[in-house]
Design goal:
The chain is about 50% helix and about 10% strand. The chain is α/β, with parallel strands linked by helices and about 325 residues long. Strand 6, helix 10 and strand 7 form a beta-alpha-beta unit. Helix 1 packs across helix 2, helix 1 crosses helix 3 and helix 13 packs antiparallel against helix 14. The protein is globular and about 65 Å long. The two termini are about 30 Å apart. About 35% of the residues are buried.
Length: about 325
């Protein structure tokens, strides 16, 4: 592929070029990796800045339904919306369903929307390994809002907060109490809690759950990147499309305050440093899968199995010997 041509087409907003570029950065082939680095370098100078919104929640809370309703509202306002959805990969076969386009049928037909499902593969943290680079590509392509949907996650899966400007956490009615709200982990990372399914018989329950979490949030230590009243809890109904405009207003208010007070740029800079360090760790781990390190590691593993070495001692030998000599 011609990287000059591909970068030009991405900057022009061509959806097909964007899809090809994301496929390129997600590839594990060495030649594709070299091409993707060249492409990202060519796109580095653009000054487009989308609002990056990370969205997480437990399986079945209605993330896809919310994203479709929310995305349709945003495109109705004239905004271009990109959705990067991460699907869990099978621990047995390694496969992934990638069914988000099927779930978001209306949004997938919208000319101002772009939906890209990706497998999580072996990556922990609720996102795919190359999601951050896919975000950069979507931003270069001129999208106004980028929604990053994680796999269904637990309390420790907070990686999406390291690649987004705002982090939304979707919760189900009757999903917790005041104690649940002050638990550390994903709760304290969220900027806005959205209690979904606030409709029908669950509306009253959702309102009570929202009040519980709102009370719990007031007990958390105030963060420097938050204005008064944030983080906050709100009720929404993705099915009836109620509360979406209120949630969007809260997101815009928080984003504008952070831009005006320097937190937006500081957060982006800290995230860039974080992903540099993460990439270094990934590259070091990759060296363990290549010869001669892989052969030495196999020999040491055999010694650990038969009791000749402890795991800690074997790891010390590998790190001091094979990796330093490579």
């Amino acid at each position: 592929m011609d990287m000059d041509d591909l970068s030009t087409r991405i900057l022009a907003g061509e959806r097909r070029a964007l899809a090809r570029a994301i496929t390129l950065v997600e590839s594990g082939r060495a030649d594709h990796r070299a091409q993707s680095l060249e492409l990202l370098e060519k796109l580095r100078g653009h000054e487009r800045r989308a609002m990056r919104i990370g969205l997480s929640g437990t399986p079945g809370v209605g993330k896809s339904t919310f994203i479709e309703a929310f995305g349709m509202m945003l495109t109705g306002l004239g905004l271009r919306v990109a959705v990067l959805a991460v699907d869990p990969s099978s621990a047995r076969s390694g496969g992934s369903i990638l069914g988000d386009k099927t779930r978001m049928e209306r949004l997938s037909r919208d000319r101002n929307a772009f939906i890209r499902p990706s497998p999580s593969q072996s990556q922990l943290g609720g996102v795919a390994r190359r999601t951050r680079e896919a975000i950069d590509l979507c931003e270069a392509s001129g999208f106004d809002v980028i929604l990053i949907e994680t796999v269904g996650v637990g309390q420790s899966e907070t990686m999406v907060a390291e690649m987004s400007d705002l982090f939304l956490l979707l919760l189900a009615p009757a999903g917790g109490d005041e104690l649940q709200g002050v638990k550390r982990g994903i709760m304290e990372m969220a900027d806005i809690l959205l209690i979904n399914k606030a409709d029908g018989d669950l509306k009253a329950t959702a309102t009570r759950t929202c009040a519980d979490y709102a009370g719990a949030l007031r007990l958390l230590r105030k963060r420097p990147q938050d204005p008064e009243g944030y983080p906050k809890a709100l009720t929404v109904s993705a099915v009836e499309e109620n509360g979406l405009d209120t949630a969007w207003e809260a997101m815009c208010e928080l984003n504008e305050w952070r831009r005006a007070n320097g937190h937006f740029d500081a957060r982006r800079a800290a995230q860039a440093r974080h992903w540099f360090e993460a990439e270094v760790r990934e590259r070091l781990l990759e060296r363990l899968t290549r010869d001669p390190v892989r052969g030495v590691m196999g020999e040491l593993a055999a010694q650990v199995e038969n009791g000749a070495l402890t795991p800690s001692a074997a790891a010390q030998v590998l790190l001091e010997g094979a990796l330093s000599a490579e």
